Amino acid sequence: MMTRQANTERDAVAWAQFWEDEGSDAHVVNSEADAQALRAVWRPFLEGGLSSGGRCRILDVACGNAVVAEQAVSIAAEHGGAQHAICCDYSEAAVRAAVRRLDGASVSGIVADAARLPVPDQSLDIVVSQYGVEYAGATAFAELARVVAPGGAVQAIVHRVGGVIDRRCQDDEALLLATLDSGVFKSFMTLLKIRHKAAQAGLEPAAAKPASARFARSVERVETARDAAGLGAARSHVARLLTDLGRVATNPLAYRLDEMEQWVEGQRHALRGFANRMQSMSRAARDEGQVAILADFFREGGLSGVSVASFDPAHHRLSAGWILRGHR
Ligand SMILES: C[S@@+](CC[C@H](N)C(=O)[O-])C[C@H]1O[C@@H](n2cnc3c(N)ncnc32)[C@H](O)[C@@H]1O
């Protein structure tokens, strides 16, 4: 069986970068159809735990901006129950965004690794994770089980090897790496420098013709990779980048060289972070044998009714993940 590496420092940096750059407006799930399909999976589970109208403690693990905790809070409000939501992620910026998102509800944030939750044993009524806990490795599923209170329940939606998200991440990663390897940034800066130098020396822009041709060839390489890529977020990111590069390259003297150096460095950094994040998502995905092991961690943690189901939204040809459940 293929073993997947546990989370690395690079993954942590990539996620921190994502949440810091995007803040509370960030959406990991960016199609409304996907968001709806996810909400439809969560609703019956959350209603099961929240419909009594009593007090309920909810934990959203690897919460990102806490869309699941938010749904739980709104369902609890429908049933007139009091609830306290705890949003946990190892990115501080994500936890900040989550707490802001649930503004008005009874909410607290924890910055922690999902494999080591600073939460007492059996202290939570509803434990949820949406495409999150699996990043922390298989033993993090034992952590989820540990914190479920008697009468409480846990549900996790988990990335799937060969699923629609895994495929998209691999596709996006390939395009981002192809862009970084295309030479587009280097040829862009060379062109700009030559045009600035030529202007200072009073030479015609034609002096930059070979540099211009090199830049055009590297743009073509990126365009070829972009056209071969699927319709993921990387494609629109790279399309925007090409537009920006093209705008500057047609009128380079309107831009300061030092500012352009800095801008290019920022763009490279963003592409690398994006590619690392895509890699971390693919690495988190589990195949059928691996998800059975995750379910065993729930059983060994004393949970009953442990089940694994495939998450198959009707609008996708491929599965979108696994749904793991258990209760105490
Ligand atoms: C794909 S996002 C999902 C976010 C959110 N649950 C959602 O569905 O929108 C994965 C999240 O896991 C967090 N994460 C990754 N590894 C983690 C770990 N070891 N411990 C805690 N959080 C982690 C990331 O910071 C990120 O917010």
TrEMBL record:
<dbReference type="GO" id="GO:0008168">
    <property type="term" value="F:methyltransferase activity"/>
</dbReference>
<dbReference type="Pfam" id="PF13649">
    <property type="entry name" value="Methyltransf_25"/>
</dbReference>
<dbReference type="InterPro" id="IPR041698">
    <property type="entry name" value="Methyltransf_25"/>
</dbReference>
<keyword id="KW-0808">Transferase</keyword>
<dbReference type="GO" id="GO:0032259">
    <property type="term" value="P:methylation"/>
</dbReference>
<protein>
    <submittedName>
        <fullName>Methyltransferase type 11</fullName>
    </submittedName>
</protein>
<dbReference type="InterPro" id="IPR029063">
    <property type="entry name" value="SAM-dependent_MTases_sf"/>
</dbReference>
<feature type="domain" description="Methyltransferase">
    <location>
        <begin position="58"/>
        <end position="152"/>
    </location>
</feature>
<keyword id="KW-0489">Methyltransferase</keyword>
